[in-house]
Specification:
Largest sheet of chain A: 2 strands, antiparallel
Structural class of chain B: alpha+beta
Number of strands of chain B: 18
Number of helices of chain B: 9
Structural class of chain A: mainly alpha
Distance between the termini of chain B: 37 Å
Order of helices and strands of chain A: HEHEHHHHHHHHHHHH
Mean pLDDT of chain A: 84
Largest interface: A-B, 18 and 24 residues
Shape of chain B: globular
Shape of chain A: globular
Strand content of chain A: under 5%
Helix content of chain B: 25-40%
Radius of gyration of chain A: 24 Å
Low-confidence stretches of chain A: none
Low-confidence stretches of chain B: none
Number of strands of chain A: 2
CATH topology of the domain at 75-268 in chain A: MetI-like fold
Order of helices and strands of chain B: EEEHEEEHHHEHEHEEHHEHEEEEEEE
Largest sheet of chain B: 6 strands, mixed
Strand order of the largest sheet of chain A: 1-2
CATH architecture of the domain at 75-268 in chain A: Orthogonal Bundle
CATH class of the largest domain in chain B: Alpha Beta
Radius of gyration of chain B: 23 Å
Oligomer: heterodimer
CATH topology of the largest domain in chain B: Rossmann fold
Number of domains of chain B: 2
Number of helices of chain A: 14
Strand order of the largest sheet of chain B: 6-7-8-3-9-10
Strand content of chain B: 25-35%
CATH class of the domain at 75-268 in chain A: Mainly Alpha
Chain lengths: 301, 334
């Protein structure tokens, strides 16, 4: 973009995309913000007036200040849902990092049909969350016909009723299955960028396989691991489909996202749900700021 | 102690034989340079000695003990890599300490050796920096420091100067030579640069396609190259190799004469040619001369002040005592 002219042309050509992006983002965001400060319960007769609502901020709905915010936080369901969210995010992160590093090192070894194996490993990432959760629920975790049940019976054990006995763990398992490939992919590229002379130098310096991993490979991967953690956290905070199609939020699997959904659609309290949504936005942005700083630092290098 | 013996060492990659069976003895305290064109197997040979590659046959002995199957860390060898291979997330101090830390050496001994190495290599002010904050020459010194503190039986250098600029290379060349004098430890040095080989080596090993073409001191190789390959490889600018009638008159297939052993005159001489390019270096002038049968162009090293220009006719006389004669098989005729 050298000249004034080409810069103007570039701006002109970017404009439609920027406009669409802004509308798509700003309209729902401002609606959420407005509703969060209003009493809006459609089943109790609250109605949005048609016409210039955007400009007049829905005059038919009452302002209630920070009522929705305090009520969302003081509800008995709030803290358990925060804990569940942390357990699921933390569990999936732990599994995808630990196994991601192991898988990435395995895939980095020269082997037969390398490209094909890599595609197979990446594949779960392309399956829709709803589909993969249903496959897990019906094919693996079903207590009578599931593969796990057959396996358990083959060893003479009583089949585990996965989704009611260990519901949170089951969801962690399902979500990890989807996100492990993503972590593996990023960590694999990071491992491939490791200078092999460094490993050889460490070998000559007397470092065994474990020391080489701990002192050379792992520090080399630290940046990639940070990026995986931050990107996955943003997406994992919003996990919904896997819970919706398996436990439906029962047995203590209600996350913050799921609680917001229940407030808006099951309790039909749009104002309360919107307040929860604003909390979620703030949380996601805190993570995003860290992500931007780290990715930005990475690009500067 | 660091006497390294290679006995019929062979290396194949699949079907390709990179190093045919090869014998070589490196004496304790010697500075040996492996030199040859790229792809001649010199780096592979070094990696075989280091243990980073497995030999396909033969035996490697270090101080008389069979080290063929000994893992790299146990061979008491230290290696300096072309890319330096410093650990980027560790400070200079930790980089240098790494081999001692792996050997579980007591902390006070580690500190003592780090201080000594840093002082010897002018790194004292940089011990707490990361490798990324150092210049190329400083990184090179850190890599050497990491090798020194282990007090190895021998140092292995894999083209350590090729990433440095010309001025720095000359400086580091001298530093490594001085280090060798001071430590008196065996050093094996791989390079494709014959100037490095000539200036640093006690013993040069010229390699081509995995074969040893000649082993000898720099001046031996310069004075009595065993064949036309060594004759052309050692010395700068290259030796002129003349075929045809001029060589046949001397009873040889090829006649070799170094550029510095030809007298130039504008009056009379044995050969006559026209000047193509004259490179004025200040101290010397390299004149490339066309029109000499059997060798085109012929290079002559003349005085820096000589005034010849493109197209001039000059007369040349080779100094008879410096003429090399080679047979049809490329080997030297005594």
């Amino acid at each position: 973009m050298a000249t004034q002219h080409s810069r103007a042309a570039a701006r002109f050509m970017m404009a439609p995309a920027v406009f669409v992006l802004l509308v798509w983002m700003l309209v729902p965001l401002s609606l959420t913000l407005i509703f969060a400060f209003k009493r809006f319960m459609p089943l109790r007769g609250d109605r949005i007036e048609s016409g210039w609502d955007f400009v007049t901020f829905f005059p038919s709905l009452d302002w209630v200040g920070f009522d929705n915010f305090t009520r969302f936080v003081s509800s008995s369901a709030f803290w358990p849902s925060v804990v569940t969210t942390l357990v699921i995010v933390g569990g999936v992160l732990a599994i995808s990092i630990v196994f991601g590093v192991l898988l990435a090192m395995l895939l980095d070894q020269p082997m037969w049909a390398q490209g094909f194996v890599r595609i197979l490993v990446i594949a779960p990432f392309f399956v829709m969350p709803t589909v993969s959760a249903l496959v897990w629920k019906n094919m693996f975790m079903d207590p009578t016909n599931g593969l796990f049940a057959h396996l358990w019976r083959a060893f003479g054990a009583d089949p585990v009723v996965w989704l009611s006995d260990v519901p949170t763990f089951s969801i962690v398992l399902i979500v990890s299955w989807q996100w492990l490939p993503f972590a593996t992919l990023i960590l694999l590229t990071a491992i491939q960028s490791l200078d092999s002379e460094q490993l050889e130098a460490a070998e000559m310096d007397g470092a065994g396989p474990v020391s080489r991993f701990a002192f050379i490979t792992l520090p080399h991967l630290s940046r990639a691991i940070t990026i995986v953690i931050l990107i996955q956290t943003i997406f994992l905070l919003g996990v919904f489909a896997e819970i919706f199609v398996t436990t439906g939020g029962a047995f203590g699997t209600r996350t913050l996202t799921y609680l917001i959904y229940q407030r808006v659609l099951e309790s039909q309290n749009v104002g309360l749900g919107s307040a929860g949504g604003v909390y979620a936005i703030i949380l996601a942005n805190i993570v995003a700021i860290f992500l931007m700083r780290i990715v930005g630092k990475n690009l500067d290098k | 102690m660091g006497r390294i013996t290679l006995d019929k060492v062979r290396k194949t990659f699949g079907e390709v034989e990179v190093i045919p069976p090869l014998d070589l003895t490196i004496e304790d305290g010697e500075f040996v340079v492996f030199v040859g064109p790229s792809g001649c197997g010199k780096s592979t040979l070094l990696r075989l000695i280091a243990g980073l590659e497995d030999v396909s046959g033969g035996q490697i002995r270090i101080d008389g003990e069979d080290a063929t199957m000994v893992p790299p860390a146990k061979r008491r060898l230290a290696m300096v890599f072309q890319s330096y291979a410093l650990y980027p997330h560790m400070s200079v101090r930790k980089n240098i300490a790494f081999p001692m830390r792996m050997a579980k050496m007591p902390q006070h001994e580690q500190d003592r050796r780090i201080e000594a190495a840093a002082k010897a290599l002018n790194l004292t002010d940089y011990l707490d920096r990361r490798p990324g904050q150092l210049s190329g020459g400083q990184r090179q010194r850190v890599a050497i420091g990491r090798a020194i503190v282990r007090e190895p039986a021998a140092f292995l250098f894999d083209e350590p100067l090729s990433n440095l600029d010309a001025a720095l290379r000359v400086g580091m060349r001298m530093e490594i030579s001085e280090l060798h004098k001071k430590l008196d430890t065996t050093m094996i040095y791989v390079t494709h640069d014959q100037v490095e080989a000539m200036t640093m080596a006690d013993k040069i090993v010229v390699l081509r396609a995995g074969h040893i073409e000649q082993v000898g001191s720099p001046l031996e190789l310069y004075r009595t190259p065993r064949n036309t390959f060594v004759a052309g490889f050692i010395g700068s600018p290259r030796m002129n190799l003349i075929e045809g009638a001029a060589a046949a008159d001397l009873g040889a297939h090829t006649m070799g004469i170094r550029p510095e052993h030809i007298d130039v005159s504008t009056g009379a001489g044995q050969w006559q040619g026209t000047v193509g390019v004259a490179e004025h270096l200040g101290s010397d002038t390299f004149i490339h001369i066309h029109g000499i049968p059997g060798c085109d162009p012929l290079t002559v090293r003349a005085d820096g002040e000589v005034s010849v220009r493109h197209g001039d006719t000059v007369h040349l006389t080779p100094q008879t005592q410096h003429i090399h004669r080679f047979g049809a098989d490329g080997l030297r005729i005594a």
